Amino acid sequence: MTTILMIRHGQSEANNLDVFAGNYDVELTELGVQQAKCTADFIAKNYKVDKIYASDLKRAFKTAQIIADKCNLEVITEQNFREISAGKWEAVKFDDITKLYSDDYSIWRNDIGNARCTEGESVKELAKRVCDTLLKVARENEDKTVVIGTHATPVRVAKCVFGGYSFDNMMDIPWASNASVTELTYNDGVFTVVFYGKDDFLTDLKSYLPVNV
Length: 213
Hints:
Elements: E1 2-8, H1 13-17, E2 19-20, H2 30-46, E3 51-54, H3 58-71, E4 75-77, E5 92-93, H4 94-100, H5 102-110, H6 123-140, E6 145-150, H7 152-162, E7 181-187, E8 190-198
Parallel strand pairs: 1-6, 3-4, 3-6
Antiparallel strand pairs: 1-7, 2-5, 7-8
Helix pairs in contact: 2-3, 4-5, 6-7
């Protein structure tokens, strides 16, 4: 059995400014670094990690690097674990997206599984690249424990696809919080979601996406 720990990055500068990041490349905030250190402590205490992968975007890579330093490992970059390519929404405040791209953003807010960012990637396209790459990683790391530093939408689509949800019902899945841990197992060709968005170890350092995302 392979264990995969998907880590949403710590709070980023984009999170702090209430802008849609997508592939807009921003750093962690000071709080984000503190969150990542807490997550690293939680993982080191509860797992023996064999390998660490991460999106090459700074916020996810830095989160993974903090975990890697704790586990004495290196980070392998994998672009397929990037956040959704958000097209016209990237680096734009959520309130402004609501005004400028109201039709597309209304689908995102109310039927995310069937949404497409304006002139960007669809959620289903994201799900295919993320889940195909998760399968590849799981097969290449049989009976190992793997950490993946990634982003909010990849974690959510993994919960949708492997948790038995249809894309029509993806709205029923909440966003995972910053630096939270989602555990998947892979055994005999099947992924299982063990838990999603675990963040109790962050105590008073928790942070979340705003309600208009």
